[in-house]
Amino acid sequence: MSTSDHVITSYAQAPARTVHAGGVTYAYRELGPKGGIPVVFFVHLAATLDNWDPRIVDPIARNRHVIAFDQRGVGASTGKVPDTIEEAADHAYEFIAALGFEKIDVFSFSMGGMIAQDLIVKHPDLVRKLVLTGTGPRGGKDIDKVVGVTYWDILRATLTRSDPKEFLFFDRNAVGKSAAKAFVKRLGERTVDRDQPIGIKAFRTQLKAIQKYGRSAPSDLSTFTQPTLIANGDHDRMVPSVLSEDLHSRIKGSELIIYPNSGHGGIFQYHEQFAPVAAAFLAD
After folding, report:
1. Where are the transmembrane segments (predicted)?
2. What range defines the domain where residue 80 resides?
3. What span, in angstroms and rounded, lies between the C-alpha atoms of 27 and 16?
4. Overall number of domains in the chain
5. Domain containing 152 — which CATH number?
């Protein structure tokens, strides 16, 4: 195999790219073998391209074309962060259309899962397969409390000089603390061409958008026809675990995995178990 045929399957080495649409520049990274339907990754609150766990991305990229992108106004993408989840879904559509794709699979986490749901409500034929992790439905009980939990955990993290994700995503027991440290370390595996962290104003705008989403009338998810995989930890303080059950009951034929003794970042804590399941689910 010549070097020109070499397929990058490591997220740490995925090239940084940009595409222009709607007067803004979207930053994205892509890896895996091209051709066929890509898997587009929808990231969480306050996250940039550097927030994806390579232990989740890499196993999927072995056999699939994977694309991760920065929302408008976040990381290396220009423009302004939208103040509703619905508008974020419009931007996601704009980004996907700019790349020329008419059909995608979606891997989403947390706020990314909310955006993905709004995207499918508006564009029901765009998404073939859907992975929803650490997320909940529009109007889901207590989603609007995410603001208080987030600020409290940021404070706790600041006082202990830790990454807020250690508090927000993982239980504060021995198992959780160890999983948290390992996760944060993995996020640092990419050493070149790293993304800009989100700004405070952009972060607050995203939080407000999630709050509005939590206080809105529910979407009709009974119309979703795509195979759907739902996963979470059993002790999610950010988007309560019961909302994964709620999604499962609303989306016909969906599969649900709840990992024990874990929080919002259950899929990262259990990446060895979850990544092969997600990769198999997303296999063509």
Report:
1. none
2. 3-282
3. 7
4. 1
5. 3.40.50.1820
